[in-house]
Amino acid sequence: MATYRLGVMYGDGIGPEVVQAAVEVLTTAAERLGTVKFNWVELPMGLSAIEKYGEAFPDITKKALKNCDGWILGPNDGAAYAKEHQGKRTPSGELRHSYDLYANIRPSKTLPGIRNVVGEADLVIVRENTEGFYTDKNMYVGNGEFMVTPETALSVGVFTKPAIERIAHAAFRFAMERRQHVTIVHKANVIKLGFGLFIKTCREVAEQYPQVKVDDYHVDAFAAQLVRRAGDFDVIVTENMFGDILSDLAAELVGGLGLAYSINASENQAMAQAVHGSAPDIAGKNVANPVGEMLSAVMLIDWLGTRHQDQSLHHLGQLVKTSILKALFDGVRTQDLGGDASTIQFTEAVVQRILRS
Ligand code: ATP
Ligand code: MG
């Protein structure tokens, strides 16, 4: 039986609760199907790792990650790092950069029985994950920010052709497997050089995919169109910060941030990470919605299935996903979706549906 080593990093805030839930449903599905085995490798990461190892992303974690087939990551409390660990990247940022996980793929799809405000929609935001306006430790601009006088800050955006090319290819390849439509989101009317290069490069890459329909929007107009007619979009390719903002918007439009999922990927590594943050206001209360982290883990399993050409992984992912959707459809929901199930109760409901199917 094929065995996969999966690195698990719980992170901060609600991280331990939702990551535990994701691990539990995958383990249950693996036992139920008996075709795949997961070896879970728990790795210290986050504020709790600072207490124990003096660092949020300690060396033992960095080393161990190399021997894993995929990683499941909990959220980081960005505000705590900014306040108490000035100048340090969050582990999540560090992971994306050190391993060059350049594509953050964030689907938003309306779900049966879940209230949404846009009608039916099924779109994917492909967010460039290494440059744009989230720049730190860049070879040209260092941390990307400078105080040029005590009262003047410069925050630099970085746009490079190779980075735009690879994210554009990721978006177009994705579109080929979907509805063959890519929307480029930018702000080239104001940030003329950076987004000028972004759109020009995306258009050049588009020529290699003649079957794919291409359009482009300024980010402000796109935000409005997303609310008005989310159902018309398929794959959206955009810069780092725009992707971050638009994917929270898209997630809320189709049902809620607690449901939103993603992977960060390069050609040979992938990391599951829910779209939401560490939500310190509800941490440790057993009320967090684990669906975002669970579906992110499923996305990782699918990515592994494709990479290793292992159909049993796709089956397993499908089983977990269907069981999550069934639980939601049956009305088992956490508070953020208007229900009263706890994190543990929701997870148990998914486990039962995996076992019964
Ligand atoms: P970050 O900067 O890390 O992305 P953020 O400021 O975007 O963080 P989040 O932590 O994503 O904020 O959460 C915003 C609010 O949404 C939380 O305070 C919480 O109330 C709610 N929320 C987020 N995720 C969940 C979840 N999984 N279940 C329930 N509520 C959630
Ligand atoms: Mg956020």
Automatic annotation (TrEMBL):
<dbReference type="Pfam" id="PF00180">
    <property type="entry name" value="Iso_dh"/>
</dbReference>
<dbReference type="GO" id="GO:0003862">
    <property type="term" value="F:3-isopropylmalate dehydrogenase activity"/>
</dbReference>
<dbReference type="InterPro" id="IPR019818">
    <property type="entry name" value="IsoCit/isopropylmalate_DH_CS"/>
</dbReference>
<comment type="similarity">
    <text>Belongs to the isocitrate and isopropylmalate dehydrogenases family.</text>
</comment>
<keyword id="KW-0560">Oxidoreductase</keyword>
<protein>
    <submittedName>
        <fullName>3-isopropylmalate dehydrogenase</fullName>
        <ecNumber>1.1.1.85</ecNumber>
    </submittedName>
</protein>
<dbReference type="InterPro" id="IPR024084">
    <property type="entry name" value="IsoPropMal-DH-like_dom"/>
</dbReference>
<feature type="domain" description="Isopropylmalate dehydrogenase-like">
    <location>
        <begin position="5"/>
        <end position="350"/>
    </location>
</feature>
